[in-house]
Write a structure and sequence with these properties.
Blueprint lengths: L7 H15 L9 E10 L27 E5 L5 E13 L1 H14 L6 E4 L6 H7 L5 E5 L21 E4 L2 H5 L32
Parallel strand pairs: 4-5, 5-6
Antiparallel strand pairs: 1-3, 2-3
Helix pairs in contact: 2-3
């Protein structure tokens, strides 16, 4: 049996260390993850972009006793499996972004602001910040920029702009490798042809 080792936390710490080393004035504000139990119907694993279908429940009496699942009727009337899973939710990140943005803008610490996010929860903080300084809103995801984050170039202080990052933006703006004692994680060393936009990182 091959066991896949999850290096995501170590890679993240390595990446933050590289950023701090390369940009001494950088301030990192951490959010946090809290454990949650969620209940829902079981679906297939994602494969090659194929739509994930609901898993049908086996006939009565054939559900393994060790599987903590319950057969329920789905929207189409077919029996499906209801399960509970343990997961983690990110908490506080959007609040941290909004708080630091407004504190910096309203205290006069910045002449302009640049926010990398596609989180529509930032609608009001961005709207208010645009009254005081020019704000650039950068969408780092592959999805279209959320409608709640859009606005008019001339609102408030004016000179606002919007952009969605593309793969070439990441490839043209990489950190040196290594940065001090921090080297690019092995799993990040891929050729451009192997990377999808969702897998890109600025290193």
């Amino acid at each position: 049996m091959t066991v896949k080792v999850d290096t995501s936390l170590r890679d993240q710490q390595n990446y933050i260390g590289a950023l701090r080393s390369y940009i001494p004035e950088l301030v990192v504000v951490n959010g946090k993850y809290v454990p949650r139990v969620k209940t829902g119907v079981l679906i297939e694993r994602a494969q090659n972009g194929r739509p994930q279908r609901r898993v049908s429940a086996p006939p009565d009496g054939q559900l393994p006793g060790w599987l903590p699942a319950e057969a329920v009727e789905g929207p189409s009337g077919n029996p499906e499996l209801l399960v509970s899973v343990s997961t983690f939710e990110e908490k506080g990140s959007d609040v941290n972004v909004a708080s630091h943005l407004l504190i910096d803008v309203l205290s006069g610490r910045v002449d302009a602001a640049m926010v990398f996010s596609n989180d529509s929860d930032l609608h009001y903080p961005l709207q208010h910040a645009r009254l005081h300084v020019p704000v650039a809103t950068i969408n780092p995801s592959v999805k279209a920029t959320a409608m709640d984050l859009r606005g008019n170039r001339d609102d408030g202080a004016g000179d606002h702009w919007w952009r969605r990052l593309r793969p070439e933006d990441f490839f043209k703006n990489q950190l040196p490798d290594p940065v001090g004692p921090y080297a690019k994680p092995f799993g990040w060393r891929r050729s451009p042809a192997e990377l999808t936009p969702s897998a890109l990182t600025v290193w």
